[in-house]
């Protein structure tokens, strides 16, 4: 059993993970606002979508190379861990986890997958008036209508449902389980037993993250221009 004197502030969410989260929120908000207003703003809708894709690529790489608690191996639950966690919650007991809890981890993955599907379907979407994604000219027309339908009806609603669940869970933990998840996601640290491994978050690792993101942005640029082989962004 750890005594209180053994508690100290430990870096859990490194700066790149926190910046990723803020930028993702801004870009997703931008996507829903621009699609709602439409018209000339659809140009920005595309750009926000490319931004989201670069962030999702970044997070996948950061899940392999990032700080300890941002790595997938340190929060991907086994089925047994997931069931045990759900059982605990159902019986009213709750043990806070250092990184994402097993349910939160699954929702992170679900969000990354749906965001990625939403961007790829967007690349092939066509409103048949004035906005067509950059891949519409080279994929078969039934792909275009399937992707447009997915983009407008399935992907965007799945994302809204996941986001609703996401925010509701954060509020649930705060008000029903007295666990504040938001402050660590903004400031980085949690008060934990002093032998808890900390996430690396040095100037070097932050610069490395920036380099990784720039590489991801370049990969998105190439993907978007795949059809036109390179230079008309
Ligand atoms: C467009 C809206 C949002 C998206 C797409 C989003 C997405 C995500 C993702 C992908 C993560 C995982 C972070 C990582 O490991 O890299 C995360 C974590 C988190 N988000 Fe959001 N988020 C959104 C809005 C919000 C809002 C409005 C709040 C505030 C209530 C919030 C609070 C949190 C918290 C507290 C965590 C950490 C959860 C934990 O400790 O397990 N998010 N979010
Ligand atoms: C996570 C990323 C994205 C989200 C959440 C998103 C969300 C949306 C939403 C909610 C709509 C409106 C649907 C409606 O009018 O009922 C829409 C429309 C559209 N989006 Fe996206 N989008 C994303 C990425 C993209 C990308 C990357 C592109 C193209 C490169 C794109 C192209 C389009 C087009 C062409 C439409 C109009 C479809 C139509 O009205 O028939 N989207 N998007």
Task: Compose a concise summary of this entry.
The protein has a two-stranded antiparallel ribbon with strand order 1-2. It contains seven helices and two strands, in the order E-H-H-H-H-H-H-E-H. It is mainly α and 233 residues long.
Descriptive report:
The chain is mainly alpha-helical. It has 7 helices and 2 strands; from the N terminus they run βααααααβα. The chain has one domain (4-224): Transmembrane di-heme cytochromes, Chain C (Fumarate Reductase Cytochrome B subunit, Up-down Bundle), CATH 1.20.950.20. It has helices at residues 15-37, 42-65, 79-90, 102-123, 141-176, 182-187, 203-224; strands spanning 7-11, 189-193. A two-stranded antiparallel sheet has the order 1-2. It is globular, with a radius of gyration of 20 Å. It starts with 6 loop residues before the first strand and ends in a 9-residue tail after the last helix. The structure holds protoporphyrin IX containing FE (2 copies). One protoporphyrin IX containing FE is lined by residues 28, 31-32, 35, 45-46, 49, 52, 115, 118-119, 122-123, 125, 127, 131, 133-134, 148, 151-152, 156, 159.
């Amino acid at each position: 059993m750890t005594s209180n004197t053994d508690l100290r502030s430990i870096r859990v969410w490194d700066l790149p993970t926190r910046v990723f989260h803020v930028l993702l929120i801004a870009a997703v908000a931008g996507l829903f606002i621009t699609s709602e207003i439409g018209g000339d703003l659809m140009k920005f809708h595309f750009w926000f979508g490319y931004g989201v894709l670069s962030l999702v690529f970044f997070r996948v790489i950061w899940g392999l190379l990032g700080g300890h608690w941002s790595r997938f191996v340190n929060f991907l639950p086994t089925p047994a861990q997931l069931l045990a966690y759900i059982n605990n919650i159902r019986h009213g007991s709750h043990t806070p986890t250092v990184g994402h809890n097993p349910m939160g981890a699954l929702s992170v993955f679900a969000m990354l997958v749906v965001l990625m599907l939403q961007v790829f379907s967007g690349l092939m979407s066509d409103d048949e008036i004035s906005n067509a994604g950059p891949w519409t000219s080279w994929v078969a027309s039934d792909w275009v209508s399937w992707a447009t339908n997915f983009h407008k009806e399935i992907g965007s609603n799945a994302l809204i449902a996941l986001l609703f669940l996401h925010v509701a869970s954060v509020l649930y933990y705060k008000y029903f389980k007295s666990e504040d998840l938001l402050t660590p996601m903004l400031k980085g640290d949690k008060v934990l037993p002093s032998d808890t491994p900390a996430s690396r978050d040095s100037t070097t690792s932050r610069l490395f993250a920036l380099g990784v993101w720039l590489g991801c942005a370049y990969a998105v640029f190439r993907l978007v221009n795949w059809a036109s082989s390179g230079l008309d962004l």
